[in-house]
Design brief:
Layout: H1 12-26, E1 33-41, E2 52-55, E3 60-63, E4 69-74, E5 78-84, E6 91-96, E7 101-102, E8 105-107, E9 134-136, H2 139-144, H3 154-158, E10 164-165, E11 175-176, E12 184-188, E13 191-192, E14 197-198, E15 203-204, E16 211-217, E17 231-237, E18 246-252, E19 255-265, E20 269-278, H4 280-291, E21 296-314, E22 317-340, E23 343-369, E24 372-397, E25 400-428, E26 431-453, E27 460-463, E28 467-481, E29 486-499, E30 502-518, E31 521-532, E32 534-537, E33 548-551, E34 559-572, E35 575-592, E36 609-625, E37 630-645, E38 654-655, E39 662-673, E40 676-685, E41 689-690, E42 695-697, E43 713-715, E44 722-723, E45 727-740, E46 743-752, E47 762-767, E48 773-778, E49 784-792
Parallel strand pairs: 1-7, 1-8, 12-17
Antiparallel strand pairs: 1-4, 2-3, 2-5, 5-6, 9-16, 10-11, 12-13, 14-15, 16-17, 18-19, 18-49, 19-20, 20-21, 21-22, 22-23, 23-24, 24-25, 25-26, 26-27, 26-28, 28-29, 29-30, 30-31, 31-34, 32-33, 34-35, 35-36, 36-37, 37-38, 37-39, 39-40, 40-45, 41-44, 42-43, 45-46, 46-49, 47-48
Length: 793
């Protein structure tokens, strides 16, 4: 008798889960021997994420995870293991094995940075792995490429990759495959970051000196990631030098930074502390005070502080405590007085805004056995925005001494408390199984206005109340070798969201596969579904801090996406070549209705938004070289992105603001001498889509019947009906360094926008000198030279 799961009355989605977990368990029965351990950098103890482990005997291998742990299982009685990592010398171990063995490996940096070729060792090469739409940029390249105003920025480098748009001139926003900035899952040591921008979006919050690894995933998302639609930017902080005290820093055009690391207890506990601050406010303060007789003080600054402690309990247990704190602050203070008759009035007017993140994470790594690894994380994060205005007044004289005050404040933010457990099980080289659970308690403050006055009964409070929501998820995935040619990553991600009495659930299948055509070429395909339970109400494209995070509610549902991608990759003499095509749909997108903003405080935000859909289709080409004296990449994207909302643009499809038909990027670094390097970056892109009126109805200067002014009326034929001029720019950088007795010093000279292309920042209607109406272009950045002095000790 044949009995199926369906005959048992089990729902279909549970059938899938049951079959999947049965599949995961099949591979663990054979009696085999495991070699496991961690891979670190010699001299520092820093884990080398993604190190390739290859056995020449079996022609199979393993890859170290984000904590440097690897596990390789074999049935043979001997192994010939090669450990290789980009920019490091390959290390080889030949040994007889009769039982499970721990082999911890330290790799030395390769001074020449030339590629080490190991015959048949290709486990970490682009054509071998199942994941697609994923790019890892070496930190060395990130630091060497030209930097805007001399400030190295991870996000500025990611914008040079195919499928990623910058949004606006100089901005650090990431618009990936037609998605918005809120659809990027930005992780810092596993903790989501809600606002990654400094200086109104011109810089990101990530200090490159404190970072160990950066990975961008644009599609084919593994099941362990969830909660966003468009991309994952997974950033890991350095862990701190276990051997000796080290430091580095730099002084640039607008900011300075310093990083110190070293052992608290040698080979057991280490720390790293990194700080960065702009100082334009400090330089401008004496000038402002001198020109205003000390009556006015205006300034702006941002800072970042990264810290981490890494403690080895024993060979199988390790603890990490990491902290990030960063804020932007802009302020204006004005003091003055005036005398009227016999009374003197002293007053002080203050205005300011601030926004920032605080993130802390406690992690416990546990090697349960040679094939099973666990990571448990407990986190707290907070993002806040605060806009305030204070006025104080004192009247004295003629027997009078009166004080009065008035203050206004607008604030918003989001707080998270989260816990998650992740497990990695590697029964043999043909299976790499990951599974885990997580939960997040969100507390949303979606925008509150409050005013207080010294006068009685004049206090006012408007806006939404705080709202608590709970988000949870469970996942399982297996990276399976079906044969020498066919490999796949099969997974499921199940998530849910409880908010305001509404419970949303989502089951998301994820599939990625590669077929190895030959030793250097493979074909790849992926299918993923994603769900996002939080929204960002965006007022402008600059990533302004007035953007509000809000949850899915009974009225406004979650965002959902489906993405299909196919492609081919080839590895030729150290060059990684990839060509991908994708199709992506998005539902549940929101944006403000025409005329609505965050300032409509008397309205519920749910009444101010329209809900719609989006779609994006494109093709991406990338040639990348990561090692050698000459490295870099050439990327090209051909894409089309559209949005549709029932209450916007008459319900018709319209181009997304950051849709770019063509996008080209070329990045190159050349270490032409042992102490000198040169780098350049050139970008070209189709202009952004903007809405401009096609007709204008002129109003009268004065309405004689009412005595008021009749405004001009603009008629817009459709949303985003006009294209800005094409964007292109060339940046150059030249560095030279020298070894001193105390360490190393380095000078870097850079030029942003070498040929001073006046690229459009925004367009508007204006008047020429003859008073004729015309379309006006406004630009921000002409050619900008910069410098930076860096040091290591």
């Amino acid at each position: 008798m044949h009995l199926s799961l369906h005959d048992c009355g089990i729902p279909m989605k549970h059938q899938i889960l049951t079959f999947f977990f049965l599949l995961l368990g099949i591979s663990g029965f054979a009696q085999r021997i495991s070699i496991s351990g961690t891979v670190t950098e010699a001299g520092t103890g820093e884990h080398l994420i993604g190190t390739n482990v290859f056995d020449r005997v079996s022609e199979k291998g393993a890859v170290a995870n984000q904590f440097g742990f690897y596990s390789y299982t074999t049935s043979a009685d001997s192994v010939d293991l090669y450990f290789s990592f980009v920019g490091f010398q390959t290390k080889n171990f030949r040994m007889k094995v009769a039982q499970d063995t721990v082999v911890n490996v330290s790799l030395l940096p390769d001074g020449n940075l030339e590629e080490v070729v190991v015959s048949a060792a290709g486990m970490d090469q682009i054509q071998e792995v199942t994941k697609m739409s994923s790019i890892n940029v070496p930190l060395k390249q990130i630091k060497e490429l030209p930097a805007f105003m001399g400030e190295v920025d991870v996000f500025k480098v990611l914008q040079l990759l195919p499928g990623v748009q910058s949004g606006t001139e100089g901005g650090s926003g990431l618009y990936v495959r037609g998605g918005g900035p809120d659809q990027n899952l930005i992780l810092l040591d596993g903790v989501p970051v809600y606002n990654a921008s400094h200086l109104f979006g011109f810089f990101s919050i990530f200090n490159a000196d404190a970072i160990n690894n950066v990975e961008l995933i644009k599609g084919g998302f593994p099941s362990r990631y969830g909660g966003r639609l468009s991309s994952v930017i997974d950033i890991s902080m350095k862990e701190g030098n276990m051997q000796e005290y080290k430091g580095e820093g730099s002084i640039g055009l607008i900011a300075s930074k310093v990083t110190v690391e070293g052992p608290i207890v040698k080979d057991q506990t280490s720390f790293i502390l990194s700080a960065r601050r702009t100082y334009l406010d400090l330089l401008a303060r004496p000038i402002i005070k001198a020109t205003t007789a000390g009556e006015e003080n205006i300034g702006y600054y941002f800072y970042d502080l990264n810290g981490k402690i890494n403690h080895i309990i024993n060979d199988k247990n390790r603890l990490y405590l990491s902290v990030y704190s960063g804020d932007d602050k802009a302020y204006s203070r004005y003091k003055d007085f005036y005398v009227f008759e016999n009374e003197r009035t002293d007053y002080e007017d203050e205005f300011g805004l601030s926004w920032g993140n605080f993130i802390t994470a406690l992690r416990w790594n546990n090697v349960i056995n040679s094939r099973l690894f666990s990571n448990h994380t407990f986190t707290h994060s907070r993002y806040k925005f605060d806009l305030f205005s204070n006025y104080d007044e004192r009247i004295t004289g003629a027997g009078v001494d009166e004080r009065s005050s008035y203050s206004e404040r607008y604030f918003s933010g989001i707080r998270d408390w989260a816990a998650k457990s992740d497990f990695e099980y590697i029964p043999n080289p043909d299976h790499y199984i990951r599974f885990g659970v997580n939960g997040i308690l969100h507390r949303f403050s979606p925008g509150v206005y409050a005013s207080r006055s010294s006068a009685a009964d004049n206090d006012l409070r408007l806006g939404a109340d705080e709202l608590d929501s709970f988000e949870y998820a469970a996942y399982a995935e297996d990276d399976i070798n079906f044969s020498d040619r066919l490999k796949a990553n099969l997974g499921l991600h199940y998530s849910g969201f409880i908010s305001d009495g509404q419970h949303y659930r989502s089951l998301q299948p994820r599939i990625a596969a590669r077929y190895l055509v030959n030793a250097s070429t493979s074909l790849k395909a992926s299918f993923v579904t994603m769900a996002q339970f939080i929204h960002l109400l965006t007022n402008a494209g600059l990533g302004l801090p007035t953007d509000l995070w809000v949850p899915a509610t009974p009225r406004i549902g979650p965002q959902e996406a489906m993405q299909v991608a196919v492609g081919g990759v080839k590895n030729v003499n150290g060059f990684e070549i990839s060509l991908e095509a994708y199709y992506k749909t998005m539902d549940g997108l929101i944006e403000y209705k025409d005329g609505a903003t965050y300032l409509n405080l008397d309205q519920d935000w749910q009444d101010k938004v329209a809900v719609g859909e989006g779609k994006s289709i494109g093709a991406e080409f990338l040639v990348q070289r990561k090692v050698g004296r000459v490295s870099g990449w050439l990327g090209y994207t051909l894409s089309n992105t559209e949005r549709r909302f029932d209450e916007v643009n008459f319900g018709e499809w319209f181009p997304y603001k950051y849709d770019r038909r063509h996008d080209v990027s070329f990045a190159l670094t050349h270490e032409w001498k042992d102490n000198k390097d040169f780098s350049l970056a050139w970008v070209y892109g189709t202009g952004n889509a903007v809405s401009l009126p096609t007709q204008r109805y002129e109003g009268l200067e004065m309405n004689r019947f009412s005595g008021g002014i009749r405004p001009n009326v603009n008629y817009y034929e459709s949303r985003n009906n006009f294209r800005n001029r094409d964007y292109h720019r060339l940046d150059l950088s030249f560095s030279w360094w020298k070894t001193k007795r105390w360490g190393e010093r380095k000078w870097t000279l850079g030029i942003y926008n070498v040929y001073s292309r006046m690229n459009p920042f925004f367009m508007d209607l204006g008047y020429d000198r003859q008073g004729n109406r015309k379309l006006m272009q406004y630009s921000l950045f002409p050619i900008i030279p910069s410098f930076a002095y860096a040091f290591k000790f």
